[in-house]
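Schema walkthrough. Field components (list of strings):
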Amino acid sequence: MAEPRSPQTSRRSERSRRAILDAALELVAETGSGKLTIEAIAARAGVGKQTIYRWWPSKAAVLFDSFLALSEDAGGIALPDTGDLEADLKQVMRAKVDELNDPRYDLPSRALAAESQNDPVLAAELTAKVLEPQLAAYEERLRSARRAGDIAEGTDLRVALELLVGPLHHRWMLRTRPLTHAFADAVVEMVLRSLAPPAR
Amino acid sequence: MAEPRSPQTSRRSERSRRAILDAALELVAETGSGKLTIEAIAARAGVGKQTIYRWWPSKAAVLFDSFLALSEDAGGIALPDTGDLEADLKQVMRAKVDELNDPRYDLPSRALAAESQNDPVLAAELTAKVLEPQLAAYEERLRSARRAGDIAEGTDLRVALELLVGPLHHRWMLRTRPLTHAFADAVVEMVLRSLAPPAR
Amino acid sequence: MAEPRSPQTSRRSERSRRAILDAALELVAETGSGKLTIEAIAARAGVGKQTIYRWWPSKAAVLFDSFLALSEDAGGIALPDTGDLEADLKQVMRAKVDELNDPRYDLPSRALAAESQNDPVLAAELTAKVLEPQLAAYEERLRSARRAGDIAEGTDLRVALELLVGPLHHRWMLRTRPLTHAFADAVVEMVLRSLAPPAR
Amino acid sequence: MAEPRSPQTSRRSERSRRAILDAALELVAETGSGKLTIEAIAARAGVGKQTIYRWWPSKAAVLFDSFLALSEDAGGIALPDTGDLEADLKQVMRAKVDELNDPRYDLPSRALAAESQNDPVLAAELTAKVLEPQLAAYEERLRSARRAGDIAEGTDLRVALELLVGPLHHRWMLRTRPLTHAFADAVVEMVLRSLAPPAR
DNA sequence: CGTTAATCGAGACGGTACGTCGCGTCTTCCC
DNA sequence: GGGAAGACGCGACGTACCGTCTCGATTAACG
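Field assembly_structure (string):
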């Protein structure tokens, strides 16, 4: 998707590329992903439809690259390691909450989530390029905590990870309850309690 | 949706209703939700398009009712209370895992999840009619456990609930890892560890 | 073309049919056949493109039916038989000249002529439905004249026919010289001279 | 068209020029003029599109030059003057019939005829460069015949000309009947009968 | 128990968007 | 500077579905 198909990349118009990605984000923010059309993107970007079809295989792929560009603009997630695991996790989980509540990210994310259900390739790409790098950063922090003795030795870090992230994702997707810092804190506390090494 | 709208329900053709719901499920299973069209449903069901539009406001509503019918056929999830909280939770979580892995449920569920992102009304309906009743059953079991002293007094049951359910949902939606009984068990064990009342 | 293909003719919207034929004629008169597009016809007629494609196989077919409707509105060509062959022929040939010079007929005719070169089916249809009936009327008049002794017995009427009509068509198509009544008269006179029965 | 436009003709690649004209003829023979595209010509000729646009103003102009090249290869039609007018005319008319029946000329001719209807400039060019020279040759032969007393004094040679040529053109364009030597002969005979000087 | 009005299958209709083709212009790199 | 290559903005193509709207032909409730 980032490097989709074949034509000569050297001749590609960077101007058009940016205009398309920007237009896609704007439109998804304005109208919701359901009403997003290739024609609207092309019109907004001042670009021929063919220029989109030349470089991206589907609307979802455009959206994906738009989202990647957005994430890059914002820089990666900083995962601090101050030694205080609970504080570190709460900080990053709160930041995640803020991001999920930010319409700038929320709407494209929902659009991509919707498209992913019908497009396994997109889903795999999303997981590989966006989700897993983040999870890997989390896991690294947990591993460091395990080395430091803050977490029981035998802990399956991958499960612990999903215990942290799953509930946030669940609330965001299903909108069952408001997604707040308090909730993030509560999740972190509960999970850490279950990870605590046996009292000596 | 479940209670659609206006015309004289008495005159409604039950034959057509079933044919439409069945056709929708078949088509979603065959082609994926993205390619599901009203026209295809009507053709497959041997029904005029107007008969669909008369009784349902949208494609998503048809899918929703199809899904409800499917769930009813299978009966609700029984939440046992044997007194052994861990065993009870593992049983029901494993059952959930099996359901999520069953293509019969998997594809329509994904279709509904996708539609929900663009249709807040559907999302609310789904939550209210399908998700929350299940969660309520879980919560009731946890409450009973708290009364029995298996869970610490101050526990926020809602958060505990989402700690259980969130990770499963996360794996299902994002397909990061296979969704297995072992994972369900691990989640239950971890969560219960964090809920345990302080040792006396 | 007049009866092109399949859908249920009973349900056909006469209103749309007329609007399409009228729009086609208007547009061909305004912009010339080269710039005539199905989209423009549909827009002008206030009609969906599919309604055109449902009933006609091609742009040329629409134009053909438009032209037929135009001809019907104007009524058939009256071929008088006053007994004076030269007068009768001059009258009808002058009328033909006027028609070829009338932009109302000229532009659609040229458009059809152009399309016919690439569409043998259209060409055959044009010949069979429009041209041959006219030629048959001419031929009948010549036959009557032959019976009356105004034309030599052995004359090949078909060749005579094309000797009359061919030069007019040639000037019209190739625009080599202005197409006037005088030219029509001259053609008639020359041809009749060649058809005259041997002097006794 | 024959003298296209501006750039430095000295630098022009003769190789490309021939390839383009040949490709145009081949394609028009294969696919019919309706499907002839500049891109196809460029691809077939192994030439950049710009090279075509640099030297010709339109697809029709390319076709026109292709046709001219074809005619030059074959050499002009010789109009004999043996003293026997009827024999001379029959010879040349039969040759014309053969040419019109030769697919090598037929298809490009039809293509040009079609284009001419929408492109008055092309039409004028065709008439001036191709048609009128031929007609002038015919007319010259008729004039010679009039001098020789084979044709009545007052005859309008131009009309006589079109009486000869019009019927052939009519049959070719409209395909009403097969275009044969017999038809050519019949036309010549009829026309000459009408041109005959008054019996003395 | 026949009348009658609503629902039904069918599908034509005015539209919107699709993904493709070709246009004529432009830009890049090569000879 | 001409030429091969081909990306670009654009406009039209012919198709797929949308949601609305007629059409008879059932069909179920009411008179």
